[in-house]
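Example 3.2
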Amino acid sequence: MARRIESLLIDGPAGKLEGLLEEPAEGEPREACLVCHPHPLYGGTMHNKVVYRIARGMRQAGAVVLRFNFRGVNHSEGEHDDGVGEVEDARAALQFLRARYPDLPYSMAGFSFGSRVITKLGCELGDAVRLIAVGFPTRRGGTFDHLAHCTVPKYFVQSTNDEHGPRNELEAVFEWMAEPKKLEFIEAGDHFFVGALEVLEETIRLSATNEHR
């Protein structure tokens, strides 16, 4: 049986948000996952290659996945709000997802700018199964002091050659983050995991099925 794919328009704080809901290829979903895309002003959308791989890895692990475009991106209404309004967009999308699947635990994942958004929202809410931050940027985009006291399980996946979150900088940030936490580096060409997208997808799948060592 083909997996269920549904295009959506979700009510957001600045207007409608364009979304894409995908259930696992096999079996009933055991978890709901919201996935957030990279920076809207630099071409980031829910169709980004890394975002697609994160979503597919989560579906392979049995999650129903909601991707969406932040305000002002493609068919989503509103204008870019420098990360502030985008956290509220994610909140609205998450509320939709949880209302659709009220009996499932939930997680959040995000790439680059999206990883900043999901850690801010996830640490505030405090009840996610896990937060998966891929390509977490240590440069630009404000502070991330909230991670010092965030007790939600945090899983960071980073390219070894990430120009926006260099290894030494992320390791220094990771050092003072609250437990539980995990950091994994993938040998890749750049921030966008060039040459390692399949490895990234499998890493995400394993992290969500507790098979990761």
